[in-house]
Design goal:
The complex is a heterotrimer. Among the domains of chain A are: 84 residues, Alpha-Beta Plaits; 32 residues. Chain A is α+β, with helices and mostly antiparallel strands. Helix content of chain A is 39%, strand content 12%. In chain A, the strands form 2 sheets. Chain A has a 3-stranded antiparallel β-sheet, with no helix packed on it. A two-stranded antiparallel ribbon of chain A has the order 1-4. In chain B, helix 1 packs parallel to helix 13, helix 2 packs across helix 3 and helix 7 runs parallel beside helix 16. Chain B is globular, with a radius of gyration of 24 Å. By secondary structure, chain B is mainly α. Chain C is an alpha+beta fold. Chain C has a single domain, classed as Cytochrome-c3 Hydrogenase, chain B (Orthogonal Bundle), CATH 1.10.645. Helices cover 47% and strands 12% of the residues of chain C. Classes of the chains: A alpha+beta, B mainly alpha, C alpha+beta. Chains B and C meet through helix 7, helix 11 and helix 16 of B and helix 4, helix 5, helix 7 and helix 14 of C.
């Protein structure tokens, strides 16, 4: 019987205490941010969409290797110092925004920026190509450059091979001239 | 036919300007007035529901340190309009296994059950659609029609969740009618009348040795039984209108949406409006029964017992009516009599008297409404067995005790 | 089981309903399906069905390197991302013999405890929401928003942080951020009594949760419960004390345990109250960490193509929901051979079938809410 009245009294008191609290909050100002007139301040270092500096990129593809979900696709024209980035595409339907790709980059050319509001309607919109689009003249010029370099390399290689062959022929001639009996003792590397 | 205000208006006001009104068949006049009354009720109910959906959401937002609706219109005032449009254009999804006829009928019955008590709810001594003798009984009886509607709404869609909601609600609503009725009985015992107008009139005189007690004439100050009865009536009203903490039937986190899970669009709007309307009925009834209705706190000018607005208007209409000929002339005469009415000091006094009465009533009703909303956003939900425990083991004994006390008080103090 | 809910003799045959709660349901915390057999309003039996959020974490871990597993760990218990990453890093570091600088260990502790508070605030808010009190949810989230903006500044993300890295942590704490954390601690200490006024002491809340879902201590241990579920039943076991990791032995804090204040020991209210008191204890730990933060490096250099020696390791950690850990088997390559992730909610959820017997439907919601599951951990 005592419990009955105690519970009843507790019910009334705690209800009143709770209601007093909510009444106090009724008069307090709200904490709402009135979007879109007021925007939230995005702190520096926020992990949003990527930022990419094509000039610094050395196309080493460490970022693509470091990505846990393989969301970076890189296509290049040429290799090493002559590489031109044709496509640096990040697939945001796979990207985890984990920033593991920024760590191994040797030139700090990739980072995660503060942009976050890039919603799209189709899957294609989720794939963003950060490389600067190249005009056909640029591509042709670069291919020309590559071909020239290839030719130079070939020419150099041919010249070097020719020089090497000439040098060997000279040493061989000198060895033949100074050797007593030619043709008996076989040389180590077979026919010179 | 008695000389009611409507009759005086028809016969003597309109009749003075347009002689044809006096020969109008009675049923035609009556029908017009009935339709006018129905339009007033529906209009008032819709306005209430609309305004208080906004009010509830705004208050809820402010309690929860956020803003409520604040985009549509200045401070979000037009939000209910947007809600209404949304509900109207929503696709009407009817479950394939539903019992079609009952499914359609259920929200209508709930709506009608919430609408009917408005007929007898007065705004002031003379502002009531129908001042029947058994006003209080009428309201309590017709609130119960909603129970049938909700049971139908629980069964008809053929969904288990709706069924649970409907069953819980039937138990809850029916059980709480008993303590509510007993608390109303306390007032009936104290006043000796079931007429709502007389109950309020009783609260306006002869209390605490004063002829015109101001707010001390209210029922809650006249007897501790009435005070306790007020609290129980109010909490019982929370349960009867399925408001938190008794909102199990619509328990969102358990039953998705309880008995109105399967209703969408306008059908849901009917349930929604019915809920807000019955909240108003409970608050208005509590004000009338316990808080003095339209008396106090705002004082009202004194009025002679036989002061009648219609009498003054018929006198003025007779004065103006003779001058008008032709349709435009008749309208002019009517307008002239209206302007004369508004500048007549006797009529003005009557108008102020009534207006302050309405303001008093609405002030107190809306305060109780606000408390209902405040309670909803503070307290968690009660489990169904706890709801029944509260009703049968707490409210019932205490309300019986109140009735006994009221009886003793009346007998002993005369 | 009361007179109300006891099975009745078969004089009146009523039909038993098989009802589906979920997987889309406002109160199952995530995609959980509860098949419930009810007799009127009374639930006779309930079977939880899981797997709707399975994302093959353990299989994926076998094909990526150790550093690349870390962002996946965040997503297991997505509400306690700092704690999950910590468990993984500790496992790898123990097997590989990698030393973590002291400053990094303190920062890890600080962030783990802040995340514990955030997770418990969310548990508090959603529990209130399940039981019909809409307002405490928003008050809890107001404090949680402060934590999330602290996390945003230190890690760049609001929910998934990827902050504990192999060998240390990702970024350092600035003095402004330390000031923000102290301001948050003050604000939390002001708000905590308000939560009690509004919810914990409310008679209706107590009536809904006291003596409901009582888990006796022996049953809790037998089912492998950990975290607040275990401590709510009176068993004083906390991995931060029993098997300290990341320098937890240096911090002074109490282990709140259910004492049956409002009802029996081990009821829903006890579990809820353990969480509330753990918030206060976590505030103490954070203050100690801030005051004693040593200078130094924040990360030991770890090779990108880290190869762990062959072997097995398991480092249990105290997540907000219980014991979480990764059983790591390595065969000397750059990827693990096998990773078994232990999510505490999986074990905690297993008690549902035994616990939800002859209770009312409203109690099912109260019980499942008090166990506080996150489906990311349950399904991995």
């Amino acid at each position: 019987m005592k419990d009955y009245f105690r519970n009843l009294w507790a019910g009334i008191v705690t209800t009143w205490v709770g209601m007093r609290l909510t009444l106090r909050y009724l008069i307090k100002p709200s904490v709402t941010l009135r979007y879109p007139e007021e925007r939230p301040v995005i702190p520096a270092g926020y992990r949003g969409i990527h930022g990419y500096d094509e000039e610094k990129c050395s196309v080493c593809k460490s970022c693509a290797a470091a990505c846990p979900v393989d969301c970076i696709t890189i296509e290049q024209l040429g290799r090493g110092k002559d590489a031109m980035v044709m496509r640096f595409e990040v697939d945001y339907s796979r990207c985890l925004f984990c920033d593991l790709c920024t760590i191994p980059c040797p030139t700090q050319c990739i980072w995660l920026s503060e942009r976050y509001d890039l919603a799209g309607y189709t899957r294609e919109e989720c794939r963003i190509d950060f490389a600067r689009p190249k005009s056909p003249e640029e591509i042709a010029a670069h291919e020309e450059l590559l071909r020239k370099k290839e030719e130079e390399k070939k020419a150099k290689a041919a010249a070097a091979a020719a020089a090497k062959a000439k040098k060997e022929a000279e040493t061989k001639a000198a060895a033949e001239a100074s050797a007593p009996q030619a043709g008996d003792a076989p040389t180590r590397d077979g026919a010179a | 036919m008695e000389s009611t205000a409507a009759d005086i208006f028809l016969q003597r006001v309109l009749g003075a300007i347009w002689p044809g009104a006096q020969t109008m068949p009675a049923w035609l006049g009556y029908s017009v007035l009935l339709l006018l009354g129905a339009a007033l009720i529906i209009g008032w109910m819709s306005l209430l529901a609309l305004a208080w959906t906004y009010g509830e959401r705004r208050i809820a937002g402010l309690i929860q340190v956020r803003l409520g609706p604040n985009r549509v219109g200045p401070q979000g005032i037009l939000q209910p309009l947007a809600d209404g449009i949304k509900l109207l254009v929503k696709e009407d999804v009817v479950p394939a296994v539903a019992y079609r006829f009952i499914y359609t009928l259920a929200p209508l019955i709930v709506f009608v059950g919430a609408l009917l008590p408005f007929i007898v709810l007065p705004f002031s001594e003379r502002l009531v659609i129908s001042n029947i003798e058994l006003g209080l009984y009428f309201v309590l009886a017709f609130e119960a029609i909603e129970v049938i509607g909700v049971l139908m709404a629980g069964w008809a869609p053929g969904s288990k969740w709706s069924l649970y909601g409907g069953m819980r609600l039937a138990a809850q609503m029916l059980s709480y009618e008993i303590p509510m009725g007993l608390c109303a009985l306390v007032i009936i015992i104290l006043t000796g009348s079931v007429n709502l107008g007389e109950i309020v009139a009783w609260q306006s005189r002869d209390a605490w040795f004063m002829e015109h007690p101001w707010i001390f004439g209210w029922a809650i100050f006249r007897s501790p039984a009435a005070l306790l009865a007020f609290v129980m009536f109010y909490v019982g009203g929370l349960a009867a209108t399925k408001r938190a903490p008794f909102d199990l039937p619509e328990a969102e986190s358990e039953l998705v949406a309880g008995y109105h899970t399967e209703y969408s669009g306008m059908r849901f709007a009917f349930f929604f409006m019915a809920e807000y309307a019955s909240m108003y009925v409970i608050c208005a009834l509590a004000t009338i029964l316990f808080l003095g209705g339209w008396h106090a706190p705002i004082p009202r000018p004194e009025l002679a017992a036989d002061a009648s607005l219609m009498e003054i208007w018929s006198r003025l209409a007779a004065a103006h009516g003779a001058a008008g000929t032709g349709v435009a002339g008749k309208f002019g005469a009517f307008g002239g009599s209206l302007i004369a009415l508004l500048t007549d000091p006797g009529a003005l006094k009557i108008l102020l008297h009534q207006t302050f009465g309405v303001v008093n009533l609405l002030l107190k009703t809306f305060l109780l409404y606000f408390v209902m909303i405040w309670v909803r956003w503070t307290l968690p939900r009660l489990r169904i067995d706890q709801v029944m425990y509260l009703c049968l083991k707490v409210f019932l004994p205490f309300s019986v005790a109140c009735v006994v006390w009221a009886l003793i008080q009346v007998v002993m103090l005369g | 089981m009361t007179l109300l809910t006891a099975p009745r003799p078969d004089t009146l045959r009523t039909e038993e309903l098989l009802v589906n709660m979920g997987p889309q349901h406002p109160s199952t915390h995530g995609v959980l399906r509860l098949v419930v057999r009810t007799d009127g309003e009374i639930v006779r039996e309930a079977w939880p069905q899981i797997g709707f959020l399975h994302r093959c974490f353990e299989k994926v871990a076998e094909s990526v390197t150790y550093a690349q597993v870390t962002p996946y760990c965040d997503r297991m218990d997505y509400l306690a991302s700092m704690n999950n990453g910590l468990a993984w890093c500790l496992a790898v570091e123990r097997l590989g013999g990698i030393e973590v600088p002291e400053r990094a260990a303190y920062l890890r502790v600080m962030m783990a405890e802040l995340n514990r508070i955030a997770s418990h605030l969310l548990a508090f808010g959603t529990y209130a929401l399940d039981l019909g009190a809409f307002t405490p949810f928003l008050y809890g989230f107001r404090e949680r928003e402060l934590i999330l903006s602290i996390f945003e500044k230190i890690s760049g993300g609001r929910l998934l942080y990827h902050y504990p890295r192999l060998g240390g942590v990702a970024r350092d704490l600035t003095p402004e951020l330390a000031g923000e954390i102290r301001a948050f601690i003050a604000q939390m200490r002001r708000a905590w009594p308000e939560y009690n006024e509004l919810l914990s002491e409310n008679q209706i809340f107590i009536k809904r949760t006291a003596n409901v879902g009582v888990i006796p201590a022996a049953m809790a241990v037998a089912y492998g419960l950990t975290g607040p579920c275990l401590r709510g039943s009176g068993v004083k076991f906390d991995l931060r004390r029993a098997k300290p990791y990341s320098l937890y032995e240096r911090f002074d804090f109490d282990i709140p345990v259910g004492e049956g204040i409002k009802g029996e020991v081990g009821d829903c209210w006890d579990r809820y109250w353990v969480r509330m008191r753990e918030i206060i204890e976590s505030l103490r730990i954070i203050e100690q960490a801030l005051d004693g933060l040593p200078e130094g490096e924040i990360q030991t250099k770890v090779s990108r193509t880290l190869k762990l020696p062959a072997g097995e390791v398991y480092v249990p950690c105290e997540n907000p929901r219980g014991e979480s850990g990764y059983y790591l088997i390595s065969d000397g390559k750059t990827s693990p051979l096998r990773v078994k992730a232990r999510g505490p909610s999986f074990n905690n959820l297993s008690i549902t079938h035994a616990l939800v017997r002859d209770v009312l439907i409203a109690d099912v919601v109260a019980i499942v809410g008090s166990i506080d599951i996150v489906l990311g951990e349950v399904d991995r």
